[in-house]
Amino acid sequence: MTDILSRHSALWCDHYALTMAQALWRDHRHLRRAVFHAYVRRTPFAGGYLLTGGQNIIRDWLEHHWSFTDEDIYQLRAKKIFHDDFLAMLASAQLELDISCMPEGEIAFADEPIYRVTGPIWQGLMVEAAILNTLNSQSLIATLAARMVAAAKGKPVYEMGLRRSQGVDGLSASRAAWLGGVTATANMLAEKYYHIPAMGTMAHAYVMAYESELDAFKNFAATYPDQGVFLVDSYDTLQGVHHAVAACRAQNIPLKAIRIDSGDLAYFSRAARSILDENGFSESKIIASNDLDGSTILSLNLQGAKIDAFGIGTHLVTSAAQPSLGAVYKLGMMENDNGVMIPVIKISEEPGKTTIPGSLAVVRYMDDNGNFAGDTILDSAQCDTLIDDGRLQRAVKSKRLLDPYTTRVFEKDMQAYAPLQPLFRGGKAVCDKENLMTARARAAAQLEKLDMSHRRHLNPHRYGVGLEENLFTQRRQLVQDHKKHE
Question: Do 358 and 414 meet the contact criterion of CB atoms below 8 Å apart?
Fold first, then answer.
């Protein structure tokens, strides 16, 4: 089954992709080969890493849905700006792109290519918006979820944000949160389509539907004798805990958990813990919700709150701490009039926005314990012969992107791998289809390989990413050449 979020036509694109494609077609340039890269300029939440997401959505879209249907062509013709011959070209088009990308759940850092797209320039332009749409949304929430899971320090984190999600069905947010490591979701569609465990018990409306909270709890306990989780703060939180205890005692059943959704969570959790323990329910869990975020979770743990699990909604699914990621998609090489691929560069007054020219890859080094030890961005042709059997075949000199004086040398035989892997060749998928569970497992494993200094919530240590020495020199030379001709 293809990913539900991938079911769009080739019109999953921006309008300007089509206007540029037609202009290039008119000038007979649309079939010239080009290389594009998608990457982030900075990691989100002032954090030390990006957990990448959405690649499997893009794979399914390109393999199963990328075409211009009759309905699509009708829509474009009605705009009265597209030539009939251009529309005929679109209608008969087959995907021809070579695409390499980091697999879903891989860790990435600023300026590293997460996607490399090579092929006819018009098709490279046509897939930009979908790649960035998924990369930005899935990676942002997956990274945020991973940070919240880390803040919880081993306690379960439940995604409960469907009612606040900015997506119509909440699937995108639930999917990304699961990739990032949450334990379960409240979204039943996410369970249907992604097999994410769904959980949930009651809302305040259920309690308010009865004349007394105790009666509501007694009925709930009788209905779910093994799964009773009681929302205790409809009227008086601590009285609600007593009512949950009484309801379970009346049925002679265990009290699985209570949930506190308001007030001073640290105070009420400690008081509730005492009530539960004094009444023989020491195994009962306490779940906290109420607009929680990573900082609140850290604070509650520091305060010694007696909370066993966290339910997070709004701040996770809307990514309230940082509403957008800002991944970009830039041209790195272009075929010239003589059919030769040449590097191109975009220069900005802001140094961080000056692009890296060429066709790019990444090599990631590992220390003797198998943990990440640094990355180098380099020409993709070099990468082909650089690594064999997980070891560097020659030394690599790596320079900080904006620092010509700092060089780090990674010696021959050091453990290394190339995070970018082939996804499509000539428009055909060349890797096995994988599900979200596989990507989630990869994310957890990769995060474990990243030192805690880079994962910590506040003021993480900067991870070392450099440019291979020759690429660094080429980039600087292209900047100087352009400056001379201004």
Answer: no
Neighbouring residues of 262: CB distance < 8 A, sequence distance ≥ 6? 233, 237, 290
On whether both 298 and 256 belong to a single domain, the answer is yes
According to DSSP H, which parts of 252-353 are helical? 265-278, 294-302, 314-317
- CATH number, domain at 30? 3.20.140.10
Distance from C-alpha of 15 to C-alpha of 129, rounded to nearest angstrom:
10
CA–CA distance, 36 with 99 (Å, rounded to integer): 10
Residues 167 and 185 in one domain: yes
- Structure confidence at residue 2 as a pLDDT band (50, 70, 90): confident
CA 110 to CA 326: how far, in whole Å?
A: 11
Tell whether 423 and 291 lie within a shared domain: no
Count of CA atoms in the C-beta half-sphere (13 A) of 409: 4
| Distance from the Cα of residue 137 to its chain's centroid | 6
Domain extent, residue 398, equals 4-141+323-484
- 379 and 240 housed in the same domain: no
Q: For the chain, how are helix, strand and coil distributed in percent, rounded to 5?
A: 40, 20, 40
| H/E run at residue 379 | strand 372-379
Identify whether residues 133 and 161 lie together within a single domain.
Answer: no
Are 297 and 332 within one domain? no
Domain termination residue (choose one: 278, 300, 317): 317
Say how far apart CA 436 and CA 195 lie, in whole Å.
9
User: Residue with structure tokens 């205890």?
Assistant: 245
What is the CA angle 404-410-412, rounded to 5? 140
The span from the CA of 17 to the CA of 79, in Å, is: 15
Write the CB contacts of 166 (distance below 8 Å, at least 6 apart in sequence): 173, 317, 318
The residue whose two tokens read 């989100």 is 44
Tell me, yes or no, whether 137 and 174 share the same domain: no
| Residues 327 and 311 reside in one and the same domain | no
The span from the CA of 464 to the CA of 371, in Å, is: 13
Tell me the pLDDT band of 486, cut-offs 50, 70 and 90. low
Could you report the per-residue pLDDT of 187-199, keeping only the tens digit for each? 999 999 999 999 9
pLDDT tens digit sequence for 138-195:
999 999 999 999 999 999 999 999 999 998 999 999 999 999 999 999 999 999 999 9
Please say which residue of 274, 301, 317 terminates a domain.
317
Alpha-carbon distance of 359 to 342, in angstroms, equals 10
pTM of the model: 0.97
φ/ψ (deg, to 5) at 368: -65, -20
Domain count, the chain: 2
